[in-house]
Amino acid sequence: MDLFAVAVHEFGHAIGLVHTSALESIMRPYYQGPVGDPLKYDLPYEDKVRVWQLYGVRDSVSHTRLARDAPDRCSSHFDAVAQIRGEAFFFKGKYFWRLTREKHLVSLRPAQIQRFWRGLPANLDGLDAVYERPGDHKIVFFKGLKYWVFKDNNVEEGYPRPISDFGLPLEGGVDAAFVWLHNDKTYFFKDTRYWRYDDHLRRMDPGYPKDATLWKGLPPNLDDAMRWSDGEPAAFSH
């Protein structure tokens, strides 16, 4: 066996990581073979995310304490929800929680959004919607009339940009966004209307917006929606 690969796996356990079924993770429960030159080794993004969730991203403060305004996940609604890399993210105010593919909380304590995705506004007080873009798997964040695109946890150059890039009106932002696996299209909701966007062609489908009541059973006061593990959309409301 490759000693370095095994050592990295065991160090992962030492700092609090558990086994995962994620294909790209060093924390898979069975030996996966050598990982290459140790001097050029880069921890898989999947594992970086779990470390950041536990400890935060390194900055000038060596120890991070949760602020007093950290929300209680059991007694408040969420601002936004998203499925990213097969896992569920729940956003509230400045914080988020993360569920693994096995639907287990990575940590009972929320992590700070801005510390995790550097490039979002330092004074961020919440998000409107988040989704993982089909095709290139980049992460798109919406707040007000602006949006940001991230590759993993790195913001792309030139952001933020106006949501009019999507063909959305500059009048209050969006309430929800999710990608539906049946057609690989992105759906945006705002108040009583919804839009269908083609991320591959980077254009809004013709004939939109439409009346959101076409989605039978959609709750009022929609906070956000996401693609659940079975591929079907799930809506969240307060």
Chart the SSEs and their pairings.
Blueprint: H1 3-14, H2 45-55, E1 80-84, E2 87-92, E3 95-99, E4 111-112, H3 113-116, E5 129-132, E6 139-143, E7 146-151, E8 154-155, E9 161-162, E10 176-180, E11 185-190, E12 193-198, E13 203-204, E14 210-211, E15 222-227, E16 233-237
Antiparallel strand pairs: 1-2, 2-3, 3-4, 5-6, 6-7, 7-8, 7-9, 10-11, 11-12, 12-13, 12-14, 15-16
Give an overview of the whole structure.
This protein has 238 residues and is mostly beta strands. The protein has two domains: 3-50, no CATH class; 74-237, 4 Propeller (Hemopexin), CATH 2.110.10. It has three helices and 16 strands. The chain has helices at 3-14, 45-55, 113-116; strands at 80-84, 87-92, 95-99, 111-112, 129-132, 139-143, 146-151, 154-155, 161-162, 176-180, 185-190, 193-198, 203-204, 210-211, 222-227, 233-237. The strands form four sheets. Strands 5, 6, 7, 8 and 9 form a five-stranded antiparallel sheet that branches. Strands 10, 11, 12, 13 and 14 form a five-stranded antiparallel sheet that branches. A four-stranded antiparallel sheet has the order 1-2-3-4. A hairpin with a 4-residue loop joins strand 12 and strand 13. It is globular. The N and C termini lie far apart (51 Å). Mean pLDDT is 82; it is low at 60-64. One of its GO terms (cellular component) is extracellular space. Pfam families: Hemopexin (PF00045), Peptidase_M10 (PF00413). The active site is at 10. Its cofactor is Ca(2+); Zn(2+).
